Amino acid sequence: MLPETVKSKYHDLLSVQHPRVKPLEYRHEQQNTFKPEEILYKTLGFSVAQATSSLISAGKGVFVTRGLVPKGAVVSMYPGTVYQKYEPIFFQSVGNPFIFRCLDGVLIDGNDKGISKVVYRSCNGRDRLGPFKMSDSTWLTSEICNPLAVGQYVNNCSNDRAANVCYQEFDVPAVFPIELKQYLPNIAYSCDKQSPLRCVILVALRDIKQGEELFSNYYTIVS
Ligand SMILES: C[S@@+](CC[C@H](N)C(=O)[O-])C[C@H]1O[C@@H](n2cnc3c(N)ncnc32)[C@H](O)[C@@H]1O
Which SUPFAM superfamilies does the entry link to (predicted)? Predict the structure, then answer.
């Protein structure tokens, strides 16, 4: 099922039998060695995470937990199932504050609970190609592989909290390596080969220091 170019590149990986469930001790050992937040900090010079918002009664928000985010840096990604505007989303959308609407009407459901979570996992399983997943689903768990995938928890700006990040939409190009798709926190609702996968990232509008909360403007997108 895998394209020959990918198969030959990952020959060793394909021949190894991976146990379905790793022993707990081994998992912990691995976590200590390769904590994703640590890798993010060492690679980009900052890390981000969800925590209780500094806004009263706003629930959770996203904070810069270490380092400094330079102006123009990608500070997080908006995870979720991507719906074309003609695809059914009624039940997933009821009482759901995590639905992001792109300029062309494409919707991204970033809710990590309930039916939204079930749909994302189902699409992820459906699109799997041999050993390669077509998206990262760890943002739905407590063992997150991509700590940038928290953009759906960024709160809206207000009079006293100016936006320090903005949304940027983009379509994943057809040449994007298939083996890297497992790191993207987005999956298409339908396996519609015509439409490229839509992703939304959050970009720093200024330098953002450690301890600051991220605020976006829900009504502004850069296309
Ligand atoms: C996309 S969610 C953001 C994450 C949310 N804070 C949470 O903990 O689930 C959007 C919801 O967050 C809350 N929120 C976002 N910005 C806010 C603000 N400036 N003031 C109060 N509540 C806000 C509202 O309840 C809104 O429906």
Answer: SET domain
Using alpha carbons, select from 142, 143, 152 the residue that is nearest to residue 186: 152
pLDDT in tens, 176-188: 999 999 999 999 9
Q: Which residues pair with 76 in a beta bridge?
A: 202
Cα–Cα distance, 84 to 102 (Å, whole number): 10
Q: Which two tokens stand for residue 58?
A: 């706003």
188 exposed, middle or buried (CB, 10 Å; 0-12, 13-18, 19+)?
A: buried
Q: Which two tokens stand for residue 56?
A: 């009263």
Please give the distance, rounded to the nearest whole angstrom, from the Cα atom of residue 177 to the centre of ligand 1.
35
Residue 36 gets the label, from left (phi > 0), alpha (psi -120 to 50) or beta, of alpha
Half-sphere exposure (CA, 13 Å, Cβ side) for 97?
10
ipTM score above 0.95? yes
Contact between residue 169 and residue 160 where contact means Cβ atoms under 8 Å apart: no
Residues within a 6 A CB radius of ligand 1: 53, 55, 58-61, 97-98, 152-153, 155-156, 158
**Domain 69-222 annotated CATH 3.30.1490:** no
